[in-house]
Hints:
- By secondary structure, the chain is α/β, with parallel strands linked by helices.
- The chain is built from five helices and seven strands.
- α3 (75-89) crosses α4.
- The radius of gyration is 18 Å and the shape is globular.
Amino acid sequence: MKAKNDITSFERWPMHFWHDPIHDVVTMTFNNCVISSSDDAIEFMKVMTIHMQRHKTPADVLIDYSGLVVKASAASKFGSERAEFGRRFFQRSYRYNVENASSRSVLYTSKVIYGAETNICATREEALNALLEQRKNEHLYAQKKRSDLCETIS
């Protein structure tokens, strides 16, 4: 058995990011990732950065929290790191399966303190539908703005 210090970051933070070409969305899943300290939060985000750099960014993302727990002891650092990560890599983002109370609290707190997106849905399907609806609404709003501009110029 390896000591904690001998475990590579990829072994310590097992995660999978996959692109859904039909909906043009990246889904992030985690496998038993428990973030307990500020150092954990930094290391975790470094691994996430490596994974996310493999995709076209900024991307629309769906994040499955069922395999991710953020402890209160890591809340502040994780919140600031996640906000910066989101600004760097996300166009739109939705979370689902956020069943851990500590993780849910961290998400809401980092929204208030750091302005990080905190769209939470029960399932991937609900998250995807909400994201698609947001895209549709943004497209309609942009069309209306262009139409208003044309009417103003006429």
